[in-house]
Design a protein that fits this description.
By secondary structure, the protein is α/β, with parallel strands linked by helices. It has one domain: NAD(P)-binding Rossmann-like Domain (Rossmann fold). It is about 45% helix and about 15% strand. The chain contains 9 helices and 9 strands. A 7-stranded parallel β-sheet has the order 3-2-1-4-7-8-9, with helices on both faces. Helix 1 links the parallel strand 1 and strand 2.
């Protein structure tokens, strides 16, 4: 898919991987709808980019708010060609911790945002894409990029909720890609490793240093723009479909 003048919606676009994706797509000539629950961050990014950038505040796990966000972006730009799901949370808690049982509310919230939220946005945007005229040269109508995590494969102690939510994102990638193929819509998932994001920033310097040392090469944290660069490649490479791509410097998470 050609990025120039295409319309992309990026959830969690106010910070971290989402913000880097918004900036890279916009720099390539895309029109971008930034969806974020943190209005101050999303508005700041949209205001800085000015032309061809729209901010929409929404909770991706809410059907009503997601519907409103998708409708607003479609009405504003006239189309939706791409969706990048970056909104997410990463709670840490043991099932049987020193302070008691893992909160069921915390587990449910993580699943609701990371997995259900991704599916919620995906289905709504796919419905818009399905009504659009396919590209004359490629017959493509759209591309959807989800964000999982290497924790989907090697979840650490304390990551039961997070790992489960991201494993769900990995698991739904192929069946949805198979279903939407007849409409000319591709679905690809990225499973990032350790990246310089606000989510990782919540860890102590000691933990961050230990995780960095476990990355084979390059032995450092990933940069958000490296994630965004892969999003751009996925969009532009029509043969990428129905797959989850690890972006992790060959790190494999230890138990803790």
């Amino acid at each position: 898919m050609q990025i120039y003048r295409s319309v992309f919606m990026v959830t969690g676009g106010g910070s971290g991987l989402g913000e880097a994706t918004v900036r890279r797509l916009h720099a390539a000539g895309a029109r971008v709808a930034i969806v974020d629950l943190a209005a101050d961050k999303g508005q700041t990014v949209a205001a800085e980019l000015e032309e061809d950038a729209l901010f929409v505040a929404a909770d991706v796990s809410s059907e009503a708010e997601a519907q409103r966000a998708v409708a607003q972006a479609r009405d504003h730009f006239g189309a939706l060609h791409g969706l990048v799901n970056c909104a997410g949370v990463a709670p840490a808690a043991r099932v049987l911790g020193k302070s008691g049982l893992h909160s069921l509310e915390s587990f449910s919230r993580c699943i609701a945002i990371n997995l259900i939220g991704s599916f919620n946005m995906l289905r709504l945007v796919a419905a818009v894409m399905a009504e659009q005229t396919p590209d004359a040269a490629t017959t493509e109508r759209g591309v959807i990029v989800n964000t999982a995590s290497i924790a989907a494969y090697e979840g650490q102690i304390g990551q039961a909720a997070y790992a489960a939510s991201k494993a769900g994102v990995v698991g739904m990638t192929l069946p949805i890609a198979r279903e939407l193929a007849r409409l000319g819509i591709r679905v690809v998932t990225i499973a990032p490793g350790l990246f310089e994001t606000p989510m990782l920033g919540a860890m102590t310097p000691e933990v961050t240093a230990a995780l960095t040392r476990s990355t084979l090469f390059p032995q450092r944290l990933g940069k958000p723009d490296e994630y965004a660069a892969l999003v751009q490649h996925i969009v532009e490479n029509e043969m990428l479909n129905g797959v989850t791509i690890r972006l992790d410097g060959a790190v494999r998470l230890a138990a803790k």
